[in-house]
Amino acid sequence: MKFAVQINSSPYAGAAGEMGYQFILAALASGHSVLQIFFYFDGIYHGLAAQLPPDDERQFLRRWSQLSQQHGIDLVICISAAQRRGLLSLEESRRQNRIDQDLAPGFRISGLGQLVEATINADRFIVFPGA
Amino acid sequence: MKKYLIIMRHPPHGSIHVQEQLDIILTLAAFDRAVSLLFLDESVFQLFRGQSAEQYDHKETLAIFDALALYDVDDLWVEAESLIEKGLVSEQLTLPVKTISRARVSQFMSGFDVILGG
């Protein structure tokens, strides 16, 4: 079965990241595929490049990037939710005359149309709610 | 074509949540998807007549709800118990809604292909 997943809470203010990650691991282990993770609401903070938790803590960025590299899962950050919260890709920063690259490697920024497409293409669309 | 149900659970203006949920609804409508809305818990206040967000400098989400019919989003459901618990009657809401009892919500949800809550 093809799954797509929506993550709606930030790494440290809700359980959506952990629950979503564990769900995806279980789905992959059972032979299912996961097309896309769509980060929305405060979930967009998962894509912040400068996250540097201590080494002995959970490393969300490494987890997502491994899912992207090893399983080809599309990591999509919603552009309107991201811009509202100050997370800009290099391309968008330049357009706004800024110099930041906030977006972590492996992620891309796109619109809500990607969420709609994921709901169409996936057999099941699973939402992990915010706090 | 898949049928979508959006589950509203948040009150208006407490956060950006409702506005961002409306963005999802409007995007689905732009893709010509069939969208229904179900209001549970404090979200019943989202359609409460006479509300204003002006003093908070917050977007008037009620005006967006009022405009949804233009996008053919007009299948609105409110859980009867949620209305009662908040001391409201459906006549105090700005849009025509259908009420559904809590006992029937689960079965109602099974009639949709994609359910977006949270």
In short:
The complex is a heterodimer of chains A (131) and B (118). With 131 residues, chain A is α/β, with parallel strands linked by helices.
Describe the protein in words.
- The complex is a heterodimer of chains A (131) and B (118).
- Chain A has 131 residues and is of the alpha/beta class.
- Helix content of chain A is 37%, strand content 21%.
- Chain A contains 5 helices and 5 strands.
- Chain A has helices at 16-29, 60-71, 79-84, 90-95, 112-121, and strands at residues 2-7, 33-39, 74-78, 107-110, 124-128.
- Chain A has a 5-stranded parallel β-sheet with strand order 4-3-2-1-5, with helices on both faces.
- In chain A, strand 1 (2-7), helix 1 and strand 2 form a beta-alpha-beta unit.
- Chain A starts with a strand and ends with a strand.
- Chain B has a single domain, classed as DsrEFH-like (Hypothetical Protein Ychn, Chain: A), CATH 3.40.1260.10.
- A 5-stranded parallel β-sheet of chain B has the order 4-3-2-1-5.
- In chain B, strand 1, helix 1 and strand 2 form a beta-alpha-beta unit.
- The longest helix of chain B is centred in the first third of the chain and has 14 residues, at 17-30.
- The mean pLDDT of chain B is 95.
- Chain A binds chain B through residues 6, 8, 16, 40-41, 80-81, 84, 111-113, 115-116, 119-120, 125, 127-130, and chain B through 2, 4, 16-17, 20, 23-24, 27-28, 31, 33, 114-118.
Write down the domain tally of chain A: 1
Oligomer: heterodimer
Q: What is the CA-CA span between the terminal residues of chain B?
A: 23 Å
| Secondary-structure arrangement, i.e. CATH architecture of chain A | 3-Layer(aba) Sandwich
Largest sheet descriptor of chain B? 5 strands, parallel
Helix-strand pattern of chain B: EHEHEHEHE
Which percent bin holds the helix content of chain A? 25-40%
State the separation between the terminal residues of chain A, measured CA to CA.
28 Å
- CATH structural architecture of chain B: 3-Layer(aba) Sandwich
User: How many separate helices of chain B?
Assistant: 4
Strand content of chain A: 15-25%
Classified in CATH, the superfamily of chain B is DsrEFH-like
Helix count of chain A, per DSSP? 5
Mean pLDDT of chain B: 95
